[in-house]
């Protein structure tokens, strides 16, 4: 299993069911050194799934005072690839360490 951090629409039950075919299991965690901004979504499929025109997007700040809260979900390698398909081109997946000390993946702005 791998860890995937969600701070936005991947926390929605409808998005999880459509993207992964199941509800994800996870726990609250946070990420330091990042801030949240937003990006306008134009991909019709992502708009349909999320029902949101603007999605949050992480931006690296490097400031230890900046913190973003979210959910750290346990996912399979196949589900990581499904998440890659869901996220639009404004995002890229990187690996990092969370406040809990666990290592996993996040989607940040390109």
Task: Using brief descriptors, characterize the structure shown.
3-stranded antiparallel β-sheet, single chain, alpha+beta, two-stranded antiparallel sheet, globular
Question: What would a concise description of this structure say?
Answer:
This protein is an alpha+beta fold and 110 residues long. The protein has helices at 13-20, 44-50, 77-86, and strands at 2-6, 25-32, 34-40, 54-60, 67-75, 91-97, 103-109.
* Largest sheet report: 3 strands, antiparallel
Strand order of the largest sheet: 1-5-2
Task: Specify the helix fraction band.
Answer: 10-25%
Our count of helices gives 3
Structural class: alpha+beta
Estimate what percentage of residues fall within beta strands. Answer: over 45%
Mean model confidence by pLDDT: 94
Shape: globular
- The sequence of SSEs as H and E is EHEEHEEHEE
Distance between the termini: 26 Å
Describe the structure.
With 110 residues, this protein is α+β, with helices and mostly antiparallel strands. The protein contains three helices and seven strands; from the N terminus they run βαββαββαββ. It has helices spanning 13-20, 44-50, 77-86; strands at 2-6, 25-32, 34-40, 54-60, 67-75, 91-97, 103-109. The strands form three sheets. Strands 1-5-2 form a three-stranded antiparallel beta sheet. The mean pLDDT is 94. This is Gamma-glutamylcyclotransferase.
